Amino acid sequence: VKLQVVPASALIEDALDSFAGMAADNGIELRKEETTDTSVMADPDATHQVFGNLIENAMKYGKAGRRVSIGARDLEGEVEFYVRDYGAGIPSEHLDRIFERFYRVDKARSRESGGTGLGLAIAKHIVLAHHGEIRVESELGAGAVFFFTLRRASLEDADANRDKVRTAVHT
Ligand code: ATP
Ligand code: MG
Question: What ligand 1 atom has the least distance to the C-alpha of 115?
Answer without folding.
Answer: 4
